[in-house]
Amino acid sequence: MTGSRLLGTGSALPRQVVTNAQLAEWVDTSDEWIVERTGIRQRHIAGEGETTATLATAAARAALADAGVDASSIGLIILATATPDNTFPATATKVQDALGCNGGIAFDVAAVCSGFLYALSVADSLLRTGMAKRALVIGAETFSRILDWEDRTTCVLFGDGAGAVVLEAPSADNAGKDAPGIIGSKLHADGAQHDLLYVDGGPSSTQTVGHVRMRGPEVFRHAVVNLSDVLKEVLADTGFSASDIDWVVPHQANARILDATARKLGITPDKVIVTVDRHANTSAASVPLALDVARKDGRIKAGDLVMLEAMGGGFTWGASLIRM
What we know:
The chain is an alpha/beta fold and about 325 residues long. About 30% of the residues lie in helices and about 25% in strands. The strands form 4 sheets. It has a 5-stranded mixed β-sheet, with helices on both faces. Strands 8-13-12-11 form a 4-stranded mixed β-sheet, sandwiched between helices.
């Protein structure tokens, strides 16, 4: 039996857009330097009144509208984020209250850029057990609030935003190679690589929020190897080949990582959804944001075989194969 079905997608972005040229007025960088190394041309930055919860709620509402279902039918909300509104309660509970579907399950997942893939897999597992009939899986971030705006190696890379999907529990008649739903997923973590990408603060260690710190070249090397390996794992487990994939929706970290991973798998660039130029790296929000963009512009259609993949701090990484 195929796993949970994806009924709809939605996304939300802050109102403020910051271009590379604007960033160059704040920090020692240039549009040419950023584009050459990352492919990023602009990013959205959260302003007054915009938080992870408000962006997540807006994306959730858009996904519900796209799916044509009411919030009252949602029994599970999992929000992937590294930038919650509060240490506790979970930001997912704020989204639940805003949507008016209190009483079900709601919690956050912290796996940074891989968070949406982790949340998607957990939601699918809970739906399969009958814990809920429908779920909202959300990736939402306000990374701009943990950036060191004097560190040009990190502050140029990130943006804010949210993306969401509505999942429905699988049914007994939803089976077969062409049935819509989550076909297979793989998740990994390697805590030994903690110091390559992390935030230098936290309530238990420094009692501060801290800032993002990253050793870029090392992260790049791990990303290309880990992502290509996990994609091969999912294909091997599900019996598909790279040539069967209609679209790859990757974590939007860096255009060079996207290109290198696709080449390693023999996937042509025209099958890779790229939004990093417009959104920059929105961490857990990047995969659902890119998925929503590609569905709304007509590239990803019903019946397409789509691979989602991401790697983030921890390190954590994973991939999911979905029939739309």
